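Q: What does the assembled structure look like for these inputs?
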Amino acid sequence: MRVYRDDQKFLQFRINAVLWGIVAAFVFLAGSFWFVQGVQADKYRGLSEANALREIEIPPKRGLIMDRAGKILADNQPSYELQVDRVVMKPLLKADKQRRQKLEAFLAKVLQLPPAEVTARWEKGSKAFSFQQPFAIAEDISMSQVATIQAQSIAFPEVHVVPVQRRNYPYGTMAAHVLGFIGEVNDKDLRQNKDLEQGDLIGKRGVELMYDQYLRGRGGAEYWEYDADGRRLSEYQPARKQPVPGDNVYLTVDFELQRRAEQYFAENEMVGATVVLDPRNGDVLAMASSPAYNPNVYSKRFTPEVYKTITSNPFKIELNRAIQGLYSPGSVFKIVMAMAGLSEGVATPDTTFNCSGGGHFFGRRFRCWKKEGHGGVDVARALKVSCDIYFYTIGGRLGVDKINEYARKLTFGEISHIDLDGERPGLVPSTKWRAEHPVKGDKKWYQAETISVAIGQGPLIVTPLQVANMTAAVANGGKVFQPHVVRYIDRVQKDGSYKRFRVPSRVLHEIQLSPSALADVRKGLWQVVNDQGGTGGNARVEGLNVAGKTGSVQVIAYSGWIKASSLPFKFRDHAWFASFAPADNPQMVVVVFVEHGGAGGADAAPLAKLLFESAFRDKVLGARLDLRNPETLEQIKEGELPLPATR
Amino acid sequence: MIFRDRGGPNIDWNFLGTAVVLACIGCLLVYSATFYSEPSLSTVKKQVLWVVIGIVLMIAFMLVDYHILFDIAPILYGIGILLLIYLMAFGRLTANVRSWIHIAGFQFQPSEFMKIFTALMVARYFDSNDRAYLDVRSFLTVMGIIGLPVGLIIMQPDFGTAASFFPLIAVAMFFGGIRARVWAVMLLTVAIAVPAGLAAMKPYQRERILTFLNPERDPLGRGYQVTQAKIAIGSGGIHGKGFTHGTQGKFGFVPEHHTDFIFAVLGEEWGFIGVTIVLGLYLYFLIQALTFAKHARDRGGTFLIICLVAFFVFHILINVSMQIGVLPTTGIPLPLISYGGSSTMMFFIAIGLMANVEMRRFVNA
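A:
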C-alpha cells in the first residue's frame, strides 16, 4: 500500500517538534545545574573542602643572614612544633563531647602553661586557619615534652609533633638592631601583602623586615589522602609543590668591628650607639645600639607577653639609637658650621676671632665652654679646641636659614633612606619652620636662638647615622651616599648554584664645597685628634692619621660650669665623637654617641680609637682586601638590586 | 563537479565558528584538567592537534559533494565493518575493551568513524525511499544497516558506544514514519528485551545501571564518579572557582576528568555561568543545524543532517546529564570538548557534512 503525502511538510513539522524537544531538554538540564550550583552550592562546597585530599603546607627555609665575610648571623635550627588537626578530631568529638576540654587540660599539663593560655591559642588558631589546615598550639617544645606527647598519641591522635625550622641568631644580641627579628603575620600584614598567609612567620624589624621578600622564600605543599576517620593514607605525588628556599643576605656589617663596638658599650655599661661607614660607597661596616635585645626571644609565634617586656623596658631596648635616637649634635655640628662659614665667605681660613670665655650676641650673653677663654682662634684652632665663641660669631653672621641650608646639604633634617625600618628625620630649624611651629603663638625666630644652633644645641636634633653621613661627606669630598647594611643577596638557582645580586652604591646627591674650605676643615679635624691640646686625643692611633670632632651636649640647662661626674646619670651630658681615617685617604668613618656619657673626648673617642685600631692595625676587617681592590669597588657600584622602600 | 554553486560557496560562518569556539573551550578545559598532573602538557597539545586535524577533515568533507559521498557510502561502510571484525579477532585489550586500533603510535576507534558511515548509509537509503511510512521490509533494512555495527561494537564490548547508535534508530522511526501498529510491537519488544538484556549484561554494566538509581549509597564504590562530579560542579557555585583553580578535578577526585567528565571541570571552575554559556552555544549550534535540515535540497540531505544532529544531541544530553546523576555513567564523550582524537575528528567530520548540505541547498546551483 502506498500512502501519498506532502513530504516536505511532514518533515518540517517533525523537525520543528524535535527542535522544541531539544530546547526543552536543554532548559531542563540548565535547571538541574541551577539546582546543584545555585541552590545546593553550599552543601557541595562543604563536601569539597572536606574531601579526602588535604593540602598540607610545607614552610620554606628562610634565607640566612651573614656578615660581609660570610659569618652566619641568622640561621635556622630544627625544632618541634605541636599542631592540632581538627579533621582528625572531628569524628572523635562526635563520640566524646568533652574531648576538647580533656585535650586542652592534657596540653596545659604537658606544656606547663595556664589552661586559659591553651584555650586562647586554640581559639586564635582555629579562627585563623581553615578547618583543613592543622594549627600550631606550641612551638620549640623540649624533647621530654615530645616524648610525653608521643606516648599519648593513641589517646590523642589529633595532636601532631611536627619538625619545623626555628629562626636562630647564634650570637644573641649581636647586631640585633640591624638584624631585627621575625614573628607571626598579623591582620595588618595580611591586608598589605597578598602573598602572605595565616601562620606565616615574617620579618618584623630590621633586615628581617626590609628584606623579607628575599629571605622568605616560597612555601610548598603536599597533598595527602585521608580516609573518613581522618587517617592519613598516601600522598598524591603529582600535585606536590616543592618549597623554594629564601635568598641568603650578606650584610655590609663586619662581624669583628660590630663585636668590638658592642663589647665596648657592654663592658662600660654605656647607653648609646655607634655607626661605622665606608665613606667611599656608603657601606655600613658596623651599627650598634646599646642596650640591645635578644632577637631569639622575640622570633616566636606566641609572644604577646614578651612584646610587653620589650616595649616597657626603661632603656628602650627596641630603639635602634643609631637611626631612631634623636639627640642634639652639640659640638659635632661645628663641622657643618665651619664648612658653611668658609663656603659662604663670612670667614676665611685666616680670619681670627678673640675668645675671652664669653660674649654678647643679639643682646644676650653666651659663654664659651672654657671659662678662661681661648684667646685668638682661626677655623682650624676653633675646631681643635672646640671654641664656642668662634662659632657663635660665624652663626650670627650666617643666620639660621643659611645654617639650615648647609645642614640639609650635609644630610640633616631628613631620612638617609638606609635599608632599615623606622629611621627618623630629626629636625633642623629655620625661620620657615618656626612660622609653622610657633612657640606660644610666637612665629618669630629670634636671632639669639641662632647662637644656640651654631654650637649644635637648641631645637636642632639629629641621629647618629646622620652625623656619620655628614662626616663621610666631609671625608670623601662632598658625596652623600645612601647608606646600606646589605651588601649582596644570593639567590639559589634551579641547578643549585647561586646568582648574586649586588646592592648598588648610590650617591643621593653631591654637594659643592670649596676645596680650600674642605682642606682647612680637615686640617682642623686632624688637629683635634693629633695636636697637643686637641679635644679628641683619646682617639689617636699610632701610625694612622685619624681626624675627628668631639661633642658634649647639655641635657639640662644649668648656669655656670659643673663637673659632669657630679650629676646624676640622667642629667649628665651626652657624648659624641665623629671621626674618619686615614685623614688623607678616608676609608672608614666612625661615629660614637654615648647617652649621658659626660664628655665626647673622654667617653666616646676611645671606642673610635679601638675600631680604627681593629681595622687598620689588627686588620680584622673581613673582606677588606677585596674592598681595596678597585675592580671590586667598581662591581659594588654596578649593583642591580633595588633597595627596599624605606618605611 | 565538486562545486555546483552559482556565486561561490554558501558557507555559514556562524555555524562553523560556533563549533570552533566550543573546541577552543574544550582545549582550555583539558589544559586546566591536566596541567597539574602533567606539567609536560602533552595531553592538551595532542588535543590541539586533534582539533587542527579535525578542522582539516571538516573542510575536506565540506568540499566533496555529499551526493558523491552517498555514492561511495557502501564502500566506506564496508571498510568500517571489516575494521570492526578485525578488532574483534585481533584487537588489543585497552581498559577492558577491544575498541582501539593502534597505528604508528597513535590509536583510534573505528567505532567512532562507523557512526559517520552508518549515518551516510541511512541517509542514502532514505534519499531513494520517499514513502511516508516504512513498510516492514524497509524498516528491517534500516535496522539491519544500523544493527550490524552495533552488534559488532557490543561484542567488543563497548556498551556506551553501541548505545550511541540508538539515535539513528530513533531518527529512522520518527522521521521515516512508522504506523501505530508497529510502534506497539516495538514497545512490546523493548519491554521484553530490557530485562533480558539486563540479565545478559556484564556485571559492571549492570552495576552502572543500578548505582545510577542511588549514586550516594557507596561514595567510594560505583557511585563514586557521579558523587565526586556533583561535588565538583556544586562547589563551583554560580561564578566557579576560576580557570585552573578547581581542586576536585585536578587532584583526581573526579576520574576521567579530561574525557567523559570534563563538564565537571567546567562546572567547578567556570560555575553555573560557564555551564549556561556552553549549553547555550550547543543549543545555538543545534538550532542552526536543524534549520539547515529544513532547507536541504533533497530528502537525502535532510536525513543526513538529522542523523548527525541526533548524534550530537544524544552525546550532549547523555554526557551532561550523567555529570549530575540525571542519567547513568557511560563512556560517552562530550562533542568537541572532551579529550579524544577519534571523537573530535568524528564530530568535525559530521559538522563538515552538515555544512556540505547547507552549501548545496539550491537546486539549480
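Confidence is low (pLDDT under 50) at residues 1-7, 213-222 of chain B.
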